[in-house]
Design a protein that fits this description.
The protein is an alpha/beta fold. An eight-stranded mixed sheet has the order 5-4-3-2-1-12-13-14, sandwiched between helices.
């Protein structure tokens, strides 16, 4: 059996297809890894209110979930909510929001409402945000301490978002640009990797016994953190370069081969 005792898994584009489907093979592989005594930790940009139901659907009835790109750590439990938030890190989103609003006046803004959903500047397209979504004045968004901020600008490409971040100097927050015109902001110094490192130490897992699988720019630090970082086959060149190896695409259930290798 592999020496791995902690595996960190991104959700969207890694375990779950872009249509929101998790295959039977992924489910079976996760069950086998969990039954082998490996800590299975979902590490996602999703908020706790969205990430924990996915974990429970996968049969993870206890353990850790890294949410909001590392700004929130939750522990799955038997409470009514199904989880306890054990740590959250916030930042003042005001300067970043106001700066980006000047550059992208038609953008949509969302600030995570911890454990519940989002407060937004205006309605997002149906299905793009989960949980309770409440439209509030922009000034309220800008003054709300945030674990995660989402900026959506349909007219901007990912390349334009990267250029914007460099131009306006968002150096006090971490950022990740998605496949479409979607920018995630989290507190400076916070990432999936930073949260996973705290979990690793808490559980007494050796650094060499860690594996991570992901596909997005918000997974780069996590893949570098793990002793064995695996990029999905459809990941960008930047993500693939951060990994030790590359598996199949989400269409191929690429995560399954990695999970099975942990118990072979």
């Amino acid at each position: 059996m592999s020496r791995c005792t902690l595996v960190a898994l991104d959700v969207d584009g890694t375990l779950m297809s872009y249509d929101g489907v998790i295959s039977a093979d992924v489910r079976e592989a996760i069950t086998a890894v969990r039954e082998a005594g490996v800590h299975v930790v979902l590490a996602t940009g999703r908020g706790a209110h969205s990430a924990v139901p996915v974990a429970r659907d996968l049969g993870l009835t206890e353990g850790w979930v890294v949410c909001s790109n590392g700004a929130v750590t939750a522990r799955i439990d038997g409470t009514d909510d199904g989880f306890e938030i054990t740590k959250s890190v916030t930042f003042d989103p005001g300067p970043a929001l106001r700066t980006i609003a000047m550059e992208l006046p038609d953008a949509l803004f969302a600030v995570e409402d911890l454990g519940v959903g989002f407060k937004v500047s205006a309605d997002f397209p149906a299905g793009e945000l989960s949980g309770r979504v409440q439209v509030v004045p922009f000034d309220e968004l800008a003054s709300t301490p945030a674990t995660r901020v989402v900026i959506r600008a349909p007219e901007a490409s990912p390349e334009e978002f990267h250029a914007l971040v460099e131009r306006v100097g968002l150096h006090e927050v971490e950022y990740a640009v998605g496949w479409s015109a979607w920018l995630d902001l989290t507190p400076g110094g916070v990432s999936k990797a930073s949260a996973l490192e705290e979990i690793r130490q808490h559980e007494g897992v050796e650094p060499f016994a860690t594996v991570a699988v992901g596909d997005g720019s918000n997974d780069v630090q996590m893949l570098r953190w793990a002793a064995r970082g695996v990029a999905m086959g459809h990941a960008s060149d930047v993500v693939r370069a951060a990994a030790d190896e590359v598996t199949g695409t989400i269409e191929d259930d690429g995560a399954v081969a990695v999970l099975r290798s942990l118990v072979d």
